[in-house]
Amino acid sequence: MSRIPTPATIEATPAASQPLLQAVKKQLGIAPNLFYCLSSHTYLGRHVAKLEDAENTANRHGSSNDIKADAAVKFAAKVTKLRGHVTGADFAAVKAAGYTDAQIIEIVQHVALNTWTNYINTVGETEIDFPLIKAPKVA
User: For 36-40, 42-46, 75-79, 86-90, which range has the lowest pLDDT when averaged over its residues?
Assistant: First the structure.
């Protein structure tokens, strides 16, 4: 059970939140509890982005089967692991793959957003209402 309760229905949420949650429900078929990164992203990758299981698996392990996306995923993993202290070579690699400065900023913003939601969900012990995916063991 979550430490921080989540409303049972969209109607029980603040009025300003309801249109956003209705849009999420229309797209996903449900309005989930706050997104818990791995389980929700695997679900969204499969059902919204229509990624193959092999791509979802590669992403969970810090890579991609698409060459350009692989550079972004690897860069995001380094941003996460190094807490933003990437090297000039790391930055050059993602630029060489064809990403603009604006797109690199967006990658970093996604890392920050995912870190933030994971912290909230960990502190709140948010109940995961997506099919549960376990994180791979890190060496």
Answer: 36-40
